[in-house]
Amino acid sequence: MTNTVRTAIFPVAGLGTRFLPATKATPKELLPVIDTPLIQYAIDEAREAGIERMIFVSHPSKSAIERYVMDDAKLRADLRSRGKTEIAAELEDAALCPKNDDVIFTMQNEPLGLGHAVLCAKEYALAGPVAVILPDDLILGKGCIGEMIDAYAQAGGGHLVATMKVAPEDVQKYGVLSVTEELGNVLRADRMVEKPEPAEAPSRDAVIGRYVLDGSIFQDLETQAPGALGEIQLTDAIAKGAERVGLAGLRFSGQRFDCGSKAGMLKATLHLASQDPECGDVLDAYVNAMSRPAAA
């Protein structure tokens, strides 16, 4: 069995209820941070990491994702005929091509959990470990999946999860690693505790939405009993396989934004806006206006 990570799975079937009513018509993965949809950041991260096959686990109601992801030659031709060659070139660079890229869309028809979504990709995954990328965990800076793939051999194979230090009061929002050894930014672990109370948390190393998983994850998911909310939990299957194949975390170097929440999306937008000269002027004007004393 190869240790090369050739497949990335994008679970994008969720309903995005935190962003209703906007997500009634627009999938949350297509919500933009300034002018770039969340799914584009995830695709670019996988491309940068050298992923060969991208599998999008979607829902029949979210056909807009496939329309966005795949190249639209007719639209580009229309844009060029109107002299909009620059935007046409940008669209071509961002899109995935059905001829040149190995892209698969498969459906998760029922909301049976993240683990079930990953299992839906089983028959399409290439041999070896697989990457899982959750697009609403936006990580800016060095590509997180690429960083994880580079560290995978050092971690000893098995299951590798992305981790970050969180405040003690926030551990109950995450899965948390029980760390047994630190090797630089690689953390060997013996288990993962889901949403522990602060006093019971084995560490402050929280797991976020990037995974490089041994290919045996599919067999463990097939026999995984439903957990919280009656769903097949990916963390439960990772924990089940940890004793057999090993478990480690990587403290990634990028900056993470939880764009599955309104506050996280706003933070990401403000962060990127502050780096854009045009948007920066708007932010400066707003801050200055808000800091002026109110008129008597």
UniProtKB/TrEMBL annotation:
InterPro entries with a match to the protein in the record: GalU_uridylyltTrfase_bac/arc, NTP_transferase_dom, Nucleotide-diphossugar_trans
GO molecular function annotation: UTP:glucose-1-phosphate uridylyltransferase activity
Organism superkingdom: Bacteria
Alphabetically ordered keywords of this record: Nucleotidyltransferase, Transferase
UniProt keyword rRNA-binding present: no
Top EC category: transferase
EC number: 2.7.7.9
GO biological process, one term: UDP-alpha-D-glucose metabolic process
Pfam family, one: NTP_transferase
Reactions this protein catalyses: alpha-D-glucose 1-phosphate + UTP + H(+) = UDP-alpha-D-glucose + diphosphate
Annotated Nucleotidyl transferase domain residues: 13-272
Family statement drawn from the similarity comment of this UniProt entry: Belongs to the UDPGP type 2 family.
PANTHER family: UTP--GLUCOSE-1-PHOSPHATE URIDYLYLTRANSFERASE
Protein name, as recorded: UTP--glucose-1-phosphate uridylyltransferase
Protein source organism: Flavimaricola marinus
Gene name, Swiss-Prot/TrEMBL: gtaB_2
